[in-house]
Write a structure and sequence with these properties.
alpha+beta, 2 strands
Length: 80
């Protein structure tokens, strides 16, 4: 029963990402806030992270261009 609940939850989750407007400094703490407009949804996230250069290629920025944001291919049915 527990495995079924976990499997069901994994099928209904979303992963979000972003590119900061300003590249953070090494060791800088960045706050995270995710809100939804649907009371039946549950948001599980950490409330902050500490930027570590080299820990994540997308957070580093560097001399590479940021990829274009993804395009929503299917309406999720509702306002988030």
């Amino acid at each position: 029963m527990a495995f079924q609940q976990v499997a069901e939850e994994l099928r209904r989750q979303y992963s979000l990402g972003y590119y900061p407007k300003k590249t953070p400094q090494a060791g800088e703490r960045r706050n995270i806030k995710v809100r939804v407009n649907r009371p039946e949804l549950v948001v599980r996230t950490r409330d902050s992270y500490v930027f570590q250069p080299g820990a994540n290629a997308t957070a580093q920025g560097g001399n590479t261009q940021q990829p274009k944001p993804p395009v929503l291919k299917k309406d999720l049915g509702g306002t988030f």
